[in-house]
Specification:
With 449 residues, this protein is an alpha+beta fold. The protein is built from 17 helices and 11 strands. α4 crosses α6. The longest helix is centred in the first third of the chain and has 28 residues.
């Protein structure tokens, strides 16, 4: 469970990403790795955030070189220090957060955490970590308060940014031929489905299987005899437990809507028709079984979708409103309702599978058709005035935030202690540092330093 794992990592303050120093040496449990005025960053907090950052990037620490992990850790620490500098600046400027709001966030987090754990699991984790629930809440309360202060500081800086139409048009001109640092992307998505005759025969077969389940036959036994998924049929259709994003989107959406013990209506994915039985639903994952009747797609089906997307692309390039085309034709219901609006992405974070299609597009560009497991797509880099105004404002706020951090760092004490010397022998490192300072102070004014 993702949520449970995240809390466990934080509680246990482990050193999973740190290189081993040998069996005879003491294990590092926790350490202050940065000081920002009266605020500190702990090693356990840094490790947890580094791990989460790597996971969000799709990078498994187990398969990275130690140097790569160490470099990411340093970048994360720089971000954490910058956030605390902003928090201290917000406090100096008398920006406040509502204590009631902090408690609401805290209670919601603890509620989600307890829902994702079994009976007594939290108490066992706390006992293993040597931390009380009160101590854990105090730590999280501080983190939430700092996050809200940071967000208010960002909002204040955003409010101070005055933009003109000329600013927005200058941004448009600058990024006509290549994507800006951050892009707003819309899509039109068409499902790749089998021909009508193939789909009709598969639907008739899955309907007959559903009738057997409705008459009282056991799901697992029916799956063993009739499911066309060779990987799960022998196990009664058991797919185990999975987290969001693991299986196809249509399958996951249907599973999410079920209650434990409930079986879905037939669900069509690129593999065919499924009947889904939900065993258990947790915050971070679902446990299901399924029965599959295959309805295979062919290259003809793919070409049919490609031709439709080519026609929609021509219409968009000829001047038709992409948002209206998405509302009328896209088969991704969520983005279609928003006129095709899909995601806002950092240019450097464009998925590898999409980069050849949209990584070179400037503002207003529409991609060639892209055929993926999720169906066929065309994408547009949005260039409407409201979108560009928001991007320009965000860019200016980020620049101003860098200035605020740099300026205020000069007014307060900031110290980073990430090197091995501080981590593994802080008392010795402190003594060495003090000795060097004493030695420097004892030198004659004219002595070479």
């Amino acid at each position: 469970m993702k949520a449970c794992a995240r809390w466990c990592l934080g509680l246990l303050a482990c050193c999973a990403l740190f290189p081993s120093r040998g069996p005879a040496e003491p294990e590092l449990l926790d350490r202050i790795v940065a000081v920002v005025d009266d605020q500190v960053v702990l090693w356990s907090e840094l490790e947890l955030r580094t791990l989460l950052q790597l996971q969000q990037q799709g990078r498994n620490p187990a398969f990275l070189e130690l140097e790569e992990v160490a470099e990411e850790r340093r970048r994360v620490l720089e971000d954490m220090v910058a956030e605390l500098v902003v928090v201290k600046k917000a406090q100096k400027d008398s920006i406040e957060v509502d204590p009631v709001q902090v408690e609401e966030y805290l209670n919601a987090e603890f509620g989600r955490m307890r829902a994702s754990m079994g009976p007594g699991e939290l108490e066992q984790i706390l006992e293993n970590s040597g931390m009380t629930e009160r101590q854990l809440k105090a730590r999280e309360r501080k983190r939430i308060r700092n996050r809200l202060l940071y967000d208010q500081m960002v909002s204040q800086l955003a409010y101070q940014q005055y933009l003109t139409r000329r600013d927005v048009e200058a941004f448009r001109e600058a990024w006509l031929d290549s994507p800006p640092p951050k892009v707003s992307v819309s899509q039109i998505n068409l499902k790749i489905v089998p021909a009508d005759s193939v789909r009709r025969r598969a639907r008739e077969r899955i309907d007959r299987i559903q009738e057997r389940l409705d008459s009282g036959e056991e799901f697992a036994e029916v799956a063993r005899r009739l499911s066309e998924d060779p990987g799960t049929a022998a196990a009664g259709g058991d797919l185990g437990c999975f987290s969001p994003g693991t299986l196809t989107a249509d399958f996951e959406r249907a599973a999410i809507d079920l209650r434990p013990g409930e079986t879905s209506e037939p669900v069509l994915t690129r593999f065919g028709f499924h009947l889904i039985l939900l065993h258990e639903k947790r915050e971070g994952e679902m446990c299901v079984s399924h029965i599959l009747v295959r309805a295979r797609t062919t290259e003809t089906d793919r070409e049919r979708v490609r031709d439709r997307l080519e026609d929609l692309r021509r219409r968009a390039l000829a001047g038709e409103d992409f948002a209206q085309l998405a509302r009328d034709h896209s088969e991704d219901a969520q983005s279609a309702r928003q006129g095709g609006l899909w995601q806002i992405l950092d240019r450097a974070a464009i998925p590898d599978v999409l980069d050849p299609f949209i990584g070179h597009l400037g503002l207003g560009g529409v991609s060639e058709p892209v055929l993926l497991d999720t169906g066929g797509h065309i994408f547009k880099i949005n260039d409407d005035f409201a979108t560009l105004e928001a991007l320009v404002r965000e860019e200016r706020v980020a620049h101003r935030m860098e200035e605020v951090i740099a300026e205020y760092r000069q007014e307060i004490h900031v110290e980073e202690r990430l090197d091995d010397e501080w981590l593994w022998d802080p008392l010795g490192a402190a003594a060495d540092s003090a000795a060097r300072q004493d030695s420097a102070a004892a030198r004659e004014p004219g002595e070479d330093r």
